[in-house]
Design goal:
alpha+beta; Beta-galactosidase, Chain A, domain 5; Glycosyltransferase; 2 domains; six-stranded antiparallel β-sheet; four-stranded antiparallel β-sheet; 13 helices; 35% helix; 18% strand; globular
Length: 564
């Protein structure tokens, strides 16, 4: 999956290592693609730049500490580069993030002959873009499909609704400088570990690119319908906001010293809470409730491996862990600036925990078979209660501290007495169950099981015995989920395992497992949802925020154990 992600908080673009835009949705992350050959080479449109002659080889990288991609083509005596970016910059106190993709073509050596091809589509390849929506501007007299000789810099600017004004050359040069300055300044503010520094930075930028700044929502991934493994049919649309995934993303950024992303996301949660009487597992980027799932039969799918789905029917499910992640997302914001509105929301979420405490749900893996009482949901009840208890202590609020402590104890009794499977040596997936579930590695990672706890290492080894494959790669679970057999390893589960090892003092093994995942990142350091355990290829939606959260958390856990 040789794709680089660029974006600016308004939109996202995936560009392959040969200079072809493979994915661009406008005006939002979850809108129709205007360029989408990633899931249909024939109907997905095109926006490519390539050498007009044979023999060129291409390489791709990010400019250091930025979300700016550079692709270089070269052969003997001739070379050129394409620099792709989405403008993001400040003018005074105002942040600008226009819906513009800028592509700078630069001659490096010789007089290479080039050709670009532009053929946008809309309505998922069923129509041409309506008039006035897309604008392609060029700083030179070149046109799509015709070869030209590259002598000086050429800029191509693709805009949604509002074209770039002024001289293209000078405006684009200035926007590139200001965008590069924005990202390097943002990166400089991060509290990065010494080891795995570059991998953590790339992961942090990737998470940042998944926050839709208009509302503060975070999407789970940039794409839809990349199969979890070949022929699986497990092709889902991840371009929406899951409170669970979003919490993990903003929490990882917060661990690196970022609080603004948490504040934006909490405002999104407050908007939903003010409108809705209850909460659901996922929402649209502007808080939409109905995310109807539809199969697009006219599209062939990634590598011809359909179906292509838009929307996600999981919005109708019960997933009771989400209250815990919502509380945990609010915690650092409330800790820094307690308000009556946030306090009321914390208490309301605790009410939801108590209301649904003993109810079955679909679980975080969104299974489409019978609901059950999932241990992960109980664990997140405990996390919610601990956060509220700690906030109560911090603010000397006895109602918060006492209610939190009471629910913590109730959750602990249920987990320890009803979810621990003594014969298997681990906390099982469900109350009274026996199945192994990799999400319960989080019992160690959130501090429910701590070093020295008699069950901690036994739980870790018990899960590994059943779920771990070659080179430490983890499956989510092995039992039926109502959708058929799962074959790929789930990337973040392996990283949760590496983090748990670090937290229990198994540092050398943790590093080995982490590095086995890092070896599988693509050419620019990005990860998808799944890894094929046989050939190491990347599958599933891309890039997956969960996976990059896992890199950050594991690297920081190793940094902590190294310093302790």
């Amino acid at each position: 999956m040789d794709l680089a992600l660029i974006g600016n908080g308004s939109f996202q673009v995936l560009i392959d290592s040969r200079g072809s835009v493979q994915w661009l949705c406008w005006p939002r992350f979850d809108s129709s693609f205007v360029i989408g050959p990633l899931i249909d080479a024939d109907k997905g449109g095109a926006f490519s730049i390539q050498a007009a002659e044979e023999g060129f080889q291409s390489t791709q990288r990010y400019l250091e500490s930025t979300a700016i991609a550079e692709t270089v083509w070269s052969k003997a005596g001739e070379s050129f580069s394409v620099t792709d970016f989405a403008p993001r910059y400040y003018e005074g106190a105002t942040l600008h993030r226009p819906r513009q993709l800028i592509r700078r073509i630069r001659r490096l050596e010789g007089s290479p002959q080039l050709r670009f091809h532009f053929a946008p589509v809309y309505d998922y390849g069923r129509a041409e873009p309506p008039a006035g929506l897309l604008h392609l501007q060029c700083s030179s007299a070149i046109s799509s499909g015709k070869a030209f000789s590259l002598e000086g810099d050429v800029y191509l600017v693709l805009s949604w609704q509002e074209p770039l004004k002024g001289s293209l050359d000078s405006e684009c040069r200035g926007l590139l400088e200001r965008t590069q300055d924005y990202w390097t300044r943002w990166a400089d503010r991060l509290d990065l570990p010494e080891r795995y520094r570059s991998e953590v930075l790339r992961s942090a930028i990737t998470l940042k690119l998944h926050q839709y700044d208009d509302t503060g929502a975070l999407s789970a991934a940039a794409t839809t319908s990349i199969p979890e493994h070949a022929g699986s049919g497990r092709n889902w649309d991840y371009r929406f906001c899951w409170p669970r995934d979003s919490y993990f993303s903003v929490d990882a950024l917060h661990l690196l010293g970022c609080i603004d992303e948490s504040k934006r996301y909490v405002r999104y949660l407050q908007m939903i809470a003010a409108r809705d009487a209850s909460f659901q597992p996922l929402y649209g980027l502007a808080g939409e409730q109905r995310i109807e799932e539809e199969i697009l039969t006219h599209l062939s799918g990634y590598r011809g491996d359909g179906p292509v789905r838009i929307g996600n029917q999981a919005y109708e499910q019960d997933q009771h862990d989400i209250y815990g992640e919502m509380v945990a997302a609010i915690e650092p914001v409330y800790r820094s600036q307690p308000t009556s509105d946030l306090r009321a929301l914390l208490l309301r979420l605790l009410d939801e925990v108590e209301k649904h405490f003993a109810e079955p749900d679909a679980g975080l893996w969104e299974k489409r078979n019978e609901p059950a009482r999932h241990s992960f949901s109980l664990l997140m009840h405990w996390v919610a209660a601990r956060s509220v208890r700690d906030l109560g202590v911090h603010t000397q609020d006895s109602e918060l501290s006492e209610r939190g402590a009471s629910i913590m104890e109730r959750a602990r009794r249920c987990l320890d007495e009803e979810c621990w499977n003594e014969s298997r040596g681990y906390y099982a997936e469900t109350v009274g169950g026996a199945h192994a579930d990799a999400s319960l590695l989080f019992m160690i990672n959130v501090g429910y099981l701590r070093p020295g706890d008699a069950r901690a290492l036994r739980h870790l080894r018990g899960l590994a015995e059943r779920l771990q494959g070659a080179e430490g790669l983890f499956r989510r679970y092995l039992h039926d989920d109502g959708l058929g057999e799962t074959l790929s390893s789930f990337t973040v589960c392996t990283l949760w395992y590496a983090e748990a090892l670090a937290r229990l003092g198994e540092r050398a093994e943790s590093e080995r497992v982490l590095e086995s995942v890092l070896r599988r990142t693509n050419h620019v350091g990005l990860l998808s949802e799944d890894i094929d355990p046989v050939d190491g290829s990347l599958w599933g939606n891309f890039p997956q925020t969960y996976s990059h959260v896992g890199i950050i958390r594991c690297a920081l856990a190793l940094s902590h154990t190294n310093n302790s």
